[in-house]
C-alpha cells in the first residue's frame, strides 16, 4: 500500500469510493440482498404483531376505585366476543404506572354515584402516551363499552390524562427501543460480514489490500456502507414507532451507539471468519449473547444478579439509551453510563479490527 499520508478529504474520498461500492454490492449479492429484504419484512411484522395486533380485540383496563363500591368479575365477555380484563390499582399513582402498559385507566373519584341509575355516569380515563392521538376515538369506544357493561349511560372523559412511562418501568413500551436496536444490530450482522466474505470469495479484497487505500480507509469505507443500511433499518423502525417517542435526543444517541458498536463488531467478525458456514456457526453464540438478553431484560421476575450482568452488554445498554427517549425523564447518570458501555465495547472491537487490517497489510 501507499505509505504517503493523504489529507482528510483524500481519506474521505477513498473511503467513500469503497463504501459506495459496498452499498451497491448489497443489492448485487444474492445473500446480502435476501438478508436485507427479510429484515425489513421482519421489522414490519414485529410492529404489526406487538403493536397493532388486529386479531386481538381484548381490552385491558386498570381501575382505581376511591368509593370502594365497585366489585365484580375480573374478566367480562363483551357482545362482540372479546374480553374486558380489569386490573385493580391501590392508588392513582399505581393506576398511572400500570396504564402505561394497558389500554385504559379508570379513576372512580370518591363521591361518584356508581350504583344503577338513569343519569350518565362520568368516569375519568387515562391512556398511555403512544395512544395520545386517538383520545377522542378512545373516549367514544370506552364510553360505549362501559355503557353496555353497566347497563346505563357512561361517559369516559380522558382529555389531557396522558400517561408517560417512567424510565425504570417502561414495560411494553420497551419493545420499540429493542426493535430499533435490533434493526441496527441485525442489519450489521446480516450485511457487513457477508460483504467481507464476498470480497474474499471474489478476490476483490486482495485488490483492495494492494491498492493505495490504507487499512483505516478500508475500515471507514466498510463502515460507511454498514451505516447507510443501519440508518435505513433504524429509519423504518423510527417511522413505525414514532408515537412512542417523548424525546428524540436519546433515541438518536442510542442509534449512534448501537450503529457504531454493531458495525465495528461485525467488521471484526467478518475479518475472522473465512466463509458463510463459519459465519453461521459464529452466529449462534453472537445472537444468544447480544440479542436474547436484550429481549428479556425488562422481565419483572428476572433475578437481580442476572439483570445487572446483562446490563453490561452493549446491546442492552444501547436499548436502554433509546428507551430513555420513550420515558417521562432522562436519568443523566444512566444515560452516561450506558453510552460509556457501548463506547468501551466499540473501542475494543475497533482495536481487534485494526490489527486484523494491519496484519493483512503486511
Give a quick precis of the structure.
The protein has helices at 8-28, 30-52, 92-99, 135-150, 174-201, 204-209, 215-240, 248-272, 276-290, 292-296, 304-310, 314-324, 332-361, and strands spanning 59-65, 75-77, 83-88, 104-108, 121-128, 154-157, 162-163.
Low-confidence stretches: none
Number of domains: 2
Query: So what's the overall shape?
Result: elongated
In terms of DSSP E residues, the strand content is 5-15%
Q: Tell me, rounded to a whole number, the average pLDDT.
A: 84
* Tally of alpha and pi helices: 13
> For the CA atoms, what is the radius of gyration?
26 Å
CA(first)-CA(last) distance: 9 Å
Amount of helix: 55-70%
From N to C, what is the helix and strand string? Answer: HHEEEHEEHEEHHHHHHHHH
Q: Strand pairing plus helix content: what structural class?
A: alpha/beta
What does this structure look like?
The protein is 61% helix and 10% strand. It has 362 residues and is α/β, with parallel strands linked by helices. It has 2 domains: 8-51 and 169-361, no CATH class; 57-99 and 102-163, no CATH class.
Amino acid at each position: 500500500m501507499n505509505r504517503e499520508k493523504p489529507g482528510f478529504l483524500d481519506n474521505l474520498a477513498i473511503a467513500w469510493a469503497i463504501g459506495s461500492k459496498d452499498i451497491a454490492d448489497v443489492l448485487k449479492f444474492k445473500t446480502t440482498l435476501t438478508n436485507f429484504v427479510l429484515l425489513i419484512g421482519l421489522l414490519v411484522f414485529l410492529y404489526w404483531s406487538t403493536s397493532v395486533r388486529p386479531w386481538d380485540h381484548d381490552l385491558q383496563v386498570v381501575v382505581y376505585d376511591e368509593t370502594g363500591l365497585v366489585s365484580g368479575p375480573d374478566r367480562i365477555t363483551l357482545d362482540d366476543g372479546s374480553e374486558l380484563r380489569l386490573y385493580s390499582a391501590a392508588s392513582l399513582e399505581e393506576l398511572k404506572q400500570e396504564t402505561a402498559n394497558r389500554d385504559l385507566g379508570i379513576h372512580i373519584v370518591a363521591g361518584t354515584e356508581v350504583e344503577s341509575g338513569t343519569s350518565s355516569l362520568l368516569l375519568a380515563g387515562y391512556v398511555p402516551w403512544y395512544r395520545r392521538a386517538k383520545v377522542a376515538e378512545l373516549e367514544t369506544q370506552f364510553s360505549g363499552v362501559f355503557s353496555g357493561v353497566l347497563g346505563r349511560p357512561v361517559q369516559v372523559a380522558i382529555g389531557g390524562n396522558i400517561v408517560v412511562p417512567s424510565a425504570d418501568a417502561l414495560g411494553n413500551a420497551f419493545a420499540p427501543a429493542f426493535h430499533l436496536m435490533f434493526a441496527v444490530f441485525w442489519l450489521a450482522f446480516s450485511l457487513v460480514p457477508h460483504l467481507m466474505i464476498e470480497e474474499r470469495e471474489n478476490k476483490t479484497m486482495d485488490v483492495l489490500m494492494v491498492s493505495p487505500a490504507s487499512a483505516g480507509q478500508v475500515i471507514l469505507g466498510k463502515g460507511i456502507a454498514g451505516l447507510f443500511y443501519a440508518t435505513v433499518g433504524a429509519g423504518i423502525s423510527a417511522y413505525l414507532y414514532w408515537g412512542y417517542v417523548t424525546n428524540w435526543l436519546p433515541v438518536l444517541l442510542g442509534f449512534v451507539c448501537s450503529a457504531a458498536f454493531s458495525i465495528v463488531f461485525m467488521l471484526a467478525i467478518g475479518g475472522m471468519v473465512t466463509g458463510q458456514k463459519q459465519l453461521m456457526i459464529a452466529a449462534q453464540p453472537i445472537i444468544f449473547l447480544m440479542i436474547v438478553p436484550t429481549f428479556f431484560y425488562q422481565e419483572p421476575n428476572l433475578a437481580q444478579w442476572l439483570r445487572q450482568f446483562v446490563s453490561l452488554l452493549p446491546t442492552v445498554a444501547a436499548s436502554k439509551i433509546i428507551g430513555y427517549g420513550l420515558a417521562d425523564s432522562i436519568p443523566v447518570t444512566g444515560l452516561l453510563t450506558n453510552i460509556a458501555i457501548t463506547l468501551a465495547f466499540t473501542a475494543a472491537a475497533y482495536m481487534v479490527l485494526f490489527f486484523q487490517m494491519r496484519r493483512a497489510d503486511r
